[in-house]
Structures are given as structure tokens and as C-alpha cells.
Write a structure and sequence with these properties.
About 45% of the residues lie in helices and about 10% in strands. The protein has 22 helices and 24 strands. The strands form ten sheets. It has a three-stranded antiparallel β-sheet. The longest helix is centred in the first third of the chain and has 19 residues. Its EC number is 3.2.1.-. It is found in: Endoplasmic reticulum. It comes from Spinacia oleracea (Spinach).
Amino acid sequence: MFFHAFNGYMKHAFPRDELKPLSCDGEDTLGGYALTLIDSLDTLALLGDKERFAFSVEWLGKNLRFDINKTVSVFETTIRVLGGLLSAHLIASDYATGMRIPSYDNQLLHLAEDLAYRLLPAFDTPTGIPFGSVNLLDGVDENESKITSTAGGGTLTLEFGILSRLTNNPVFEQVTKNAVRGLWACRSKINLVGAHINVFTGEWTQKDAGIGTSIDSFYEYLLKAFLLFGDEEHLFMFQEAYGAVMRYLFTDPWYVEVNMDSAAIVWPLFNSLQAFWPGLQVLAGDVDPAIRTHAAFYSVWKRYGFTPEGFNLATLSVQQGQKSYPLRPELAESTYWLYKATRDTRYLDVGRDIVSSLQYGARCPCGYCHITDVEDHKREDHMESFFLAETVKYLWLLFDLAVGGDNLVESGPYKYIFSTEGHLLPATPQISLVREHCSYYGAYCRSNNSSLRQELHSPVISRKSEEANGSGVHQGWGPTALLSALPDREASSGSGLVKGLCRGLTHGQKIGVTYFEPQFKTKDVSSVDKREANVASHKSPVVVISSDANPTYVENNNGSLEESSKTEMDNQSAEQ
């Protein structure tokens, strides 16, 4: 299925953005820069096609440019293009993936950085929530709409966060975290968010709260930012938001849309984008409601052969004006995650039904077509790039897992988080262990460590202050902790960063292991004095091994390892 559509694109549409699978032609839908090829890169790698993967990476490195006069969606460009480039870069540059390209010299990373710089002007708003669109050459147009969707402003954290870690530039991650904080600060008293918001005033222009259209991936990235980066601030927001969703939107097994302030039901509708939710619940560890909801969503697929964009729960019929199925991946995605969690073969049956529907209802001469009406299966001459980035990827992973899962995701060198576009984002030490140690040159480092030379980076993008929007600063590792640690930080700026110039990766850090030299605790006070002197000279964390071989970590108020005072150690020795 993948190669039927990919080969059709390369033969008839490349280098245009997307394929017209009925007429075997191409069309530019986003920026005119081979969108489908970029979106398909990590799927090629996952399927083990080294030849096509290498050709595609080399062609993009030589021919792709973003200095063009095109106004593009910040959201779509981030998840499809920026995410596609970063995922492919991480695969092509790493021998451990088995897809290392010998001639590759970080060309895709440079392109991703250039693209991200061109998206940055969109974040220059009073709330920190970005505009919906930006011109890649001229920035934000003076007539650009100030209204954006919650998903559009809150689904950028993973891609920009990875870019910050790969380029040692904290600005990318910080602007997207500010955007999430800006949205969360505008939540209702019952912790719900609406669908559309004014990026200048923070006022909601559409107060319908749901888990589908315009909001869906906001919830997704709250959890995944914690899973990939260990960001506890995002975990706290997810826990609060998830609790509100399950309390006010969940009418077992369906989800409805309610007013974000009063929780009154405004729209008893199953939206096809909601189908990602059971998969997210699996990641969050809440499997039982995920099983029930997935079964309900799948019943709609069985009824029509596809899921319509809208299914009215009051009339149990397709919502007028929402009859299409644009090859969406969400049901296949949740099916994969539930099979991975339960190993229940019923999910293989679901996957088989999805494949059958696509093969008999959507397959076209050169690819796969949109279904304009799920009731009569009329086809449209268009194929979204996410069909190759997500839909067939999740289906292939589902069936490959059933026969052993010998692939990059299941058996590769890293754990992978999928972006909302299905791109593979690896939890490497450089990306995921920033909070444990200074894992790369220019990492976010502990601000009170005198052995590190720190630089204060001046604000680049403005945002609403914590005092104005009510969002507190989370204490802990990372840029937010450093912001709060600055003694001369003005309360209204909220945009300074401290970046430590840290040592390079040690051998242990490269493979995700920290080595400790054991030091043994005794009742001899003089030995404690010697240990303190040794700690003071090395400026390293203390790991004290007690007589029962259990290490004692001395922590400060922020939860980081810190030298204990002589008095504290004496007391601990006396107690033992």
C-alpha cells in the first residue's frame, strides 16, 4: 500500500506537494517543496528501504529551500515539514539505526533550523500564542487573523524542543513552551480549553471544549512533552486537563463537546479526529476506558466502511456536511497502541477491516483517494501526505508487531515517541536526559553551579508575563527553573534564559548511564571531613553508600543532587 502510493507520487507528482491519485497528477497545497516526500522519509527508513531513503535525503539536501514568498500554516508546517526533517536527520546521522547515510552531513538539520527561524515571527504576540500563518520570506502579514486554534498554538513543543537540543539554541523550545503556558493560563475555572482564541487578548472566540477538531493534539503534546523531555510542568497540565475531560466530556463510551465554562453539552457529536484519544489513554496508562471508546469508534467504521468527519450521537447518523473521510490515521493509530498494550487479537481484526476498506474503497490508479461521502463511497482526486506518514505506518506497525516486531520502533536502539504527524522522535540521551545531567554543549544547566559559565540570552520573542496571565513558573530542571533563579529578572519579561557551557558527553552519558564512584559512610568523623573536602574540590554530586549497600542521595529543595553539610552528615552517621 505504501509503495503503490509513494511510487505514484514520485512518478506523477514529485516535486510538487501532494498527489492527485485519480488523474495521476500533482498539486502544491502547502509550500511547493515536495511535502509528501518530506512527510514520507521516516516511513521509508522504517520499512528498511535504504536506497530510496538515501536518495530522498540527498535530493532534499541539495534542492530544498525555504527562502520563498509563501504564506504557510505554522501548525501544518511544523508537524509535517519540520518534524519530517528532524526525524529523518536523527535516523540518517546515527549508525545505531542501521540507516546511516555515509555522505550525510547534517543537511536536513540545517534546513530544519532555517525553517524554524522563519516560523519564529509568528510567536511575537502579547500572549505568546502564535499566529496561525506566517510568510516564509516576510514574516507575519499585517492583516493576518489574530484568531488561532488551540491545537495550532499548542502542538509545536516536540519538534521545536528537539531542534533546541540539536542546535543548542533554547529559543525554539522556549517560545513553544510560552505558547502552551499562554493557552493554559486562559483555561476555564473547570480546567477546560476552547477551540479558538485571540492571540492578542487571550479571549476565546469559540468556547466549545472537546477532544476533536481544533483541540485534539493540544492534549497529546502535553503528555508527550513529558514522555520525551521529562517536563513535569507539562505532566501537571496534562493531569489537570485529562481529569477535566474525563469528568465533563466523557459520556461512556463517547465524548461530547461542552461549553468550557458551564460544561453544558453543546454538540453530541463523534468527530473523526477524536479517534486518537484511546491511543493517548494507553500512553497515559488508562487502558480500560480506551478499550470501550475504541470499540464505539470502530462501530462507526464498520457501519460505513470509513469514519465520517462527523457522526451525530443524537440521531445516530452522519452529520450533514461532514460526510467525508480524508484517509485519516487516528483509528489505526489507537488500534496499534491498544494491540501493543493488550495483545488482544481483536485489534488485528480491526486492522484487517481498515486495510480492506482502504483497498476496496479508496485505492486509485496512482495512490489512494479521499472519500467524499462515506455513505456512497464517492472518491475525490486528492491524497494527503499524512496517508504515507501515518495511516499506512500505523497499520504496518500493527501487523509487524503481531509477527515479532523486528523493526526500528519495536527493536531499535531507542524508545520512540510519535509526533502528531506520526514522525519517529527517539528518546536519545541528548534529547531526553537533559534533566539528569549536562548532556550536550550548551545544555540547560544548574544555575547555581559555580563551575559553569553562564550566559544570559536577551529576549527574542515577547510574551505575556506570568503575573498577567496567571501561569506560575515550575521549579525544577530546565529553562523554567533557570528563569525563576535569575536574581535580577524583571517580573514582566518572562523571556530570559540561562544557558550553561557544559562539558561534552562522557562515555556513560552517550549510552545513557551515569557512573558513580562509591564512597562508604563510617562513624569516623575525620573521614566525613575528608569526604567533604573531596566534594568541594570536585564539585560533583554526592552518592553515599551505607553499610547495607543502599545509596543515600542528598537532595536540595529543587530535587537535584547536592552536597550535604558536615552537620547533616554527622547527624546521619550518629543515627546509623
